[in-house]
Request: fold
Amino acid sequence: MNLILLFKEDFVNGTGRARLQGRRLEHVLRVHRARAGDDLKVGLCGGKIGRGRIILLSEQCLEMDVALEEPAPPILPVTLAVALPRPAMLKRVLSCASAMGVKKILLFHSSRVEKSFWRSPALSRGAIHEQLVLGLEQACDTALPDVRLFTLFKPFVEDELPTIARGTRAFVGHPEAREACPGDIKEPATLVIGPEGGFVPFEINLLVSQGFVPVNIGKRILRVETAVPAFLSKMFY
Amino acid sequence: MNLILLFKEDFVNGTGRARLQGRRLEHVLRVHRARAGDDLKVGLCGGKIGRGRIILLSEQCLEMDVALEEPAPPILPVTLAVALPRPAMLKRVLSCASAMGVKKILLFHSSRVEKSFWRSPALSRGAIHEQLVLGLEQACDTALPDVRLFTLFKPFVEDELPTIARGTRAFVGHPEAREACPGDIKEPATLVIGPEGGFVPFEINLLVSQGFVPVNIGKRILRVETAVPAFLSKMFY
Reply:
């Protein structure tokens, strides 16, 4: 937690005084080992970044006076569409994408996604929110990504993706692609990452028919949780 | 498991017939759902890649006739030195580095590494081997990385790193570095990644005094397991 993410409801009505309990209090006590008078890096969800000066700190509650000054860091101009990974990996992909600055995340079904993944508690609103917040806290960002779910592949690719990808460079990660993933992209992009085991030929062909260019990131087949940071880093970092 | 990694001891004496039980047999039965007569992608640890034709397959044992023809994929010309991460993250870092083609991995102590991490079962020879093999199986590689442990920071940086880094471009990942990590490196490199929470100033200074150039991968502070694929991808992919 390199930044403590605050929400409007953390603030005492109409003041700059925030009051924390639970996980964030625990972290300040056990990891930061902070004391009254210390300054902590904070940010307001959807807003600016600044400092919180601890006024009161006990095992039950933390109160701090918050001053917000700096803007949040620049975002990555990318929409990241990932075939729904298994629950443990989903968590890591969400926090990783959130930390790296992705603001639009789409999770979609595909032939090699196990149907049971869609019933996982990791897909609940709260569980997704938690991983996104962990990513923001890690990377000192405040802008919560938007996550959307698409449980049918064909309608997603045919009816949704064309609008989403309009005006962007559209890529689909594919180990067998002839073209290498370009580096140092300056324009907005849409990046589609398939499931463990890859897309089936019908799926790749449908994506290509919608204007998505298959690109590889080397000949090695990477796990989804490795492919996501590898592609994003190559393209934008 | 995109490739089944075979070891010399899997082969029936002096023949091309390999006999598998345990985890690999389980995988062929439950995930590949293969049958006698099917071909599976295999590789010999430290050797070539080819096909194994299943001769016999039961719940107890798999036998296949192995033909090895292709060379293993190119390696990344990098020595990756990582401050020892907590055990769960160590596993992911090892399998990720192994999958991405790193062949020399150094784990070292630093001020923000918890001492208890050095007593974790994840550091046993067997546990490290397991993660490296998972990475090779994922990326269809056969060359097992070499992993070395250094429990003292100063002797590691002063006495070991200079020899290890000689003739390579030497970088240390550091979010506060002014210089950005270069892309598309063609020469051998040595890349040092610090612990969660970063290096303390003394450590960065000591690395700089040994010729390591601090480089950032953007302003965002990434977790070690994200920083490793992000740096490797930016530098070499």
About this structure: The mean pLDDT of chain B is 96. The CA atoms of residues 1 and 174 of chain B lie 34 Å apart.
